[in-house]
Write a structure and sequence with these properties.
- This protein has a five-stranded parallel sheet with strand order 7-6-4-5-8.
- The chain is globular.
- It is built from eleven helices and eight strands.
- By secondary structure, the protein is α/β, with parallel strands linked by helices.
- It has one domain.
- Helix content is 41%, strand content 13%.
């Protein structure tokens, strides 16, 4: 009953928003425009999903405990202060009509409880990118644009030397061709939980590389801070989040969210047993 009341209220609030009775100054580019900006410029990107917005409100996530300095830092990054560091947020401020039913209801609920965060901390003078660039399969009611989106994504790092900074279970590009257009791939493997506590060690490992490297980050909330700091150091950094998982779902034409076997592979022996020799050869640091 509580969920029914919540969902009904969320739908009513979003209806009032769509009709212009409730207003917001937040502006977000569609997925294609966001991808074109990343493909045809050298901008870096930091992404905010629902979890980062929850953390700004002081809530814990499964893989990251809340802390005042995390909330304060996320608020500062969300304010979109740097021209060369694109900030992406969920593209829920124009319509949800292009979302599948479950996704539509999820984001209506999110809008109900979190719209105040966007109103208070987003920069009204900026147009944000769409966070759905890295979550561009599951949400979509119409899957036909997904192939084009993933093609654009993969071309961003074509012929570039890439450093993937990811958790122990993530395995970006392992078992698929997500990173196959890159000139080279190296990896820094980070703690799978509360990676913010290892921030200094992660940054030290990243700073061992020359600034011609392109960094791809899949380190949860910690990725926001890594992206900002490396960008300020002169690196190009893309916070790709769970892109690999969405790509796997796209390749398998998954009808819903499904677990990936590679996310259960942890440690050198397990990776060897799984036949992930190329992955292991790419690892330069275990943190």
């Amino acid at each position: 009953m509580k969920n029914l009341i919540k969902d009904t209220l969320a739908a009513a609030v979003y209806f009032l928003y769509e009709k212009g009775i409730l207003k917001t100054s937040v502006r977000v580019m569609p997925i294609d425009e966001t991808l074109d900006e990343l493909l045809y410029t050298d901008k870096s990107m930091v992404r905010f999903g629902d979890g980062e917005i929850v953390m700004i409100k002081g809530g814990d996530l499964v893989l990251q405990k809340a802390a005042p300095e995390i909330s304060a830092g996320l608020r500062e990054i969300l304010a979109y202060r740097y021209d060369g560091l694109m900030v992406t947020i969920p593209d829920i401020f124009r319509t949800l009509d292009d979302h599948r039913r479950a996704s539509r209801q999820f984001w209506r609920d999110h809008f109900l409880f979190c719209r105040g965060v966007y109103a208070r901390y987003c920069n009204a003078d900026r147009i944000y990118g769409s966070t759905f660039v890295s979550r561009c399969y599951y949400f979509a009611e119409d899957k036909s644009p997904c192939g084009g989106w993933f093609d654009k994504i993969r071309r961003i790092w074509k012929d570039k030397d890439v450093v993937v900074v990811e958790g122990t279970k993530t395995h970006n590009g392992v078992g698929n061709d997500l990173l196959s257009l890159a000139s080279s791939v190296e990896r820094i493997i980070c703690p799978p939980k509360d990676a913010y506590g290892a921030l200094d060690r992660i940054l030290d490992a990243c700073r061992q590389y020359d600034k011609d490297r392109l960094f791809l980050l899949s380190v949860g909330v910690a990725a926001k801070f890594i992206a900002r700091d490396l960008f300020q150091d002169g690196y190009r950094v893309l916070d790709i989040g769970n892109l690999d998982m969405e790509y796997e779902w796209y390749l398998s034409k998954a009808p819903d969210k499904t677990p990936l076997a590679k996310h259960e592979i942890v440690g050198q022996q397990a990776n060897e047993a799984a036949g992930y020799g190329e992955y292991l050869a790419q690892v330069r640091a275990w943190l």
